[in-house]
Amino acid sequence: MLTQPFLVALLFGAVTAGVPLLLAGMGEQISEKAGVLNIGIEGMMLLGAYCGFVAAYYSGSFALGFLAGGLGGMAVASLVALLCVRLGLNQIVIGIALTLGAEGLTALLHHFQFSRTYPRLDEAPVLALPLLADLPILGPALFAHNPLVYVSVALVAFLGWAFRHTYAGLNLEAAGVKPAALDAAGISVVGTRIGAVLATGFLAGVGGAYLANVGAGLFVPFMTHGAGFIGIVLAMLARGKPLWVLIGAALFGLSLALTTALQVAGINIPTDIVQMLPFALIMLVLVVFARHSVLPAALGLPYERGER
Amino acid sequence: MGHTDGPPQSVRPAGADSAPVLPSPVLSVRTLTKRFPGVVANDGISLDFHAGETHVLLGENGAGKSTLIGMLAGMLRPDAGEILVQGSPVRILTPRQSLDLGIGTVFQHMLLVPSLSVIENLMLGGPWWQRLARGAAYRRFAELSECLGISLDPDLPVGHLSLGQQQQVEILRALWRDTRVLILDEPTSMLTPQGVRDLSAVLCRLCSQGVAIVLVTHKLAEAYDLGDRVSVLRQGRLVGGIAADEHRGMTEAQMTDQVIAMMFDPAHAPMADERAILLGRGNVHAPSVRRGAAPCLEVRNISTMPRTAAHGLQGVSFDLRPGEVLGIAGVDGNGQKQLAEVIAGQRAPSSGTVLVGGKDVTQGDVAARRNAGIRYVTDDRLGEGTVGSLSVAINLLLKNVGAEPFWHRGIADWARIRQAARDDIQRHDIRTRSEQTLLAKLSGGNIQKVLLARELGKAEGDVKVIVFSKPTHGLDLHNAQLAHRRIRESAAAGRGIVLLSTDLDELLTLSDRIGVLFQGRLVGIVDNGPGAGAAIGRLMTGAVAA
Ligand SMILES: Nc1ncnc2c1ncn2[C@@H]1O[C@H](COP(=O)(O)OP(=O)(O)OP(=O)(O)O)[C@@H](O)[C@H]1O
Ligand SMILES: [Mg+2]
Prior knowledge:
The complex is a heterodimer. Chain A is mostly helical. Chain A has one domain: ABC transporter involved in vitamin B12 uptake, BtuC (Orthogonal Bundle). Chain A has helices at residues 4-33, 41-59, 62-86, 91-114, 138-142, 147-165, 167-177, 179-184, 189-216, 227-237, 242-264, 271-289; strands at 127-128, 144-145. The radius of gyration of chain A is 19 Å and the shape is globular. Chain B has three domains: 51-74 and 93-269, P-loop containing nucleotide triphosphate hydrolases (Rossmann fold, 3-Layer(aba) Sandwich); 293-373 and 463-546, P-loop containing nucleotide triphosphate hydrolases (Rossmann fold, 3-Layer(aba) Sandwich), CATH 3.40.50; 386-460, no CATH class. In chain B, strand 17 and strand 18 form a beta hairpin. The longest helix of chain B has 16 residues, at 193-208. Chain B is globular and about 70 Å long. Classes of the chains: A mainly alpha, B alpha/beta. The A-B interface holds A 165-171, 173-174, 177-178, 180-188, 192, 195, 296-297, 305-306, 308 and B 70, 73, 75-77, 94-96, 98-100, 105, 107, 111-116, 120-121, 123-132, 388, 440-441. The complex binds adenosine-5'-triphosphate and magnesium ion. Adenosine-5'-triphosphate binds next to strand 2, helix 2 and helix 17 of chain B. Magnesium ion binds at residues 65-66, 108, 185, 443-444 of chain B.
């Protein structure tokens, strides 16, 4: 079973499945750092997937597709910014409502646009990294992907650096741990959190667009299948470290790919059980590691100046 | 009140005296008013703050000092009145605007991010798209800590620092940017005498450079030494003041008399013979140790693991006899918190034993220690002492929630709880709208009173030992005195008291013996009496460390 083509397919699939989780997880991490529990990220991914697909379908450009996906995600995020950050409404309630709303909206829009057809995009462009792509097994599995994959991984390094070495990083940390201290330092807590939520929306939306345009090549309603929620789990377990989101996303990507690979390889296990694998993994990870997750002190709490 | 013709008797350094007093104030407030539900926290206050002058704001707990400062700092919006900068009206709607006007503020309660390091907290507030300018920040840090005589590791997370050290970080932050107006809300409540002297020197220098300083304090000695001008608030109103020329001609005793008369209701006015404490000069308490009795607390060779910011304890041993007050002096961060927590059972020592009434309780947790008769009053009134989002009544019972007689089989007897709370509020002079007010809405000093009322008030159970950590920080004169009297009464009733404090006068006033913690070791225990203050001062610098 561990033939070369199988391994390549498995790893390749892991990357494809892992990138949306990585983007969602990094996005959620930014919000959580700033003290906003962004439950609506699933909805952001879904609207991102739909907008990204439509843009790529009509323009033929994958880059435009990703951009449109990011903007779609930001559209949902701007509602979170308004309702939760500005008006201080309950972040969990609003997040669930937005996810449900985005599910309904994208299904409806898709129905009007394409009725019951599911048109496909062309094959996504691939950038084979020079030299690295020639490695056996690893080359074709890891280094011959859509350029967005490399951008996402580079973003991990960039965020890790930015969290520690820029004023934005300090602002995010302060907004999540002690917002009054940030406010007293002359930085708007609401502004910082809105920026964080919009960045989350953009990343989640791009992740959704990748899921639709590269991962599947088409849009199907409800296609995110809890990817946003996995992103939330990843962010919570990563304790503010983007590298851990990457590791987590790789792990979940692998288990999702294994699901597909096992089915393709025709191993005789009931598909329902195989499809439960990633979610069983979440349970396991939560049981083992969740007690170590440290969440910012002001997570989920709206900030109002002078309230005490 | 014509004291102006007398010779200047103040001990203020020369810089402040020679500073030119400009005719037009840098900052003024006119009929400034701020209301909260049920209270007028500031009622038509008009004040001027001049360049090169230290303006001291005095007033009892809840008088409205922090509220006034909140409005100047942009944290609160006035309901009426105006703020003028150099004569022209400004609106301060955000802290940013306040900073941009050149106003720097040290708030009463720490506004620091515990998960960020000292240097990161100081850098907070830069343009978000830029890289941190660490190099420049370290240089500024070195320069300022040199001036202030502060030795802190800039890379430690602030959450690992003691409250006294955090207060130093706050002061550094206010001085970080060049300001025209420097506002300090009780900046010295956790500092040692030496820390206060260093800060005073810096303030005097800033004053002579033309900075206007607004200082809130409860210590009249500080007001006298540092202030050029004094204003007194009571129940939200400006009830009086001492002008600069007048202040210069007064003796300390004259000023104290005037200020006390303005500050307090005649009903609460403190006794004349207690003036020494009020002055912050302290009378020396005559020792009355019951040497014959068996110790109620024995601490044997206690060591703890060093925490990153603070020294671990190293072989600390002492006995405490019933009726004795053992003071513990020392610069914050030398093991005070560890010692208090080991006695209270909040921290396990790495070696050594703790005995209460001869019984070994080293292994016991907090509940076991409470049962053994130990009480601990923390200095961290907001962090671990109280719950801001609960009512005053519940906070007064916090450690007995669910217990008889206020709860019967898990069901709260609200009438009884409220009645008990009203009694406490009355007895401890807690200024709150009602017993159901959320604790966070109280002024800093009144939160401290709630904490003390809970631990000092009811003598439920068999209390053998009480550990106090900076019990009177933030209390006004009258209430500090009240608390001192209660602590002495508690000792007179046969309890052993461990009193950790950075305030040397307080230690000299209350203690029978005073030990000094230096770098985690108890470097000496001095019998209180003439000369004790000087001996402790020497021990505190580690001069005669064993
Ligand atoms: N956010 C708030 N909500 C409700 N009441 C408040 C609020 N802030 C202050 N108050 C009330 O306003 C009054 C003045 O409080 P303030 O904190 O200004 O007193 P203070 O003079 O600083 O006292 P202290 O010496 O104890 O610090 C108090 O009665 C307090 O309960
Ligand atoms: Mg105050």
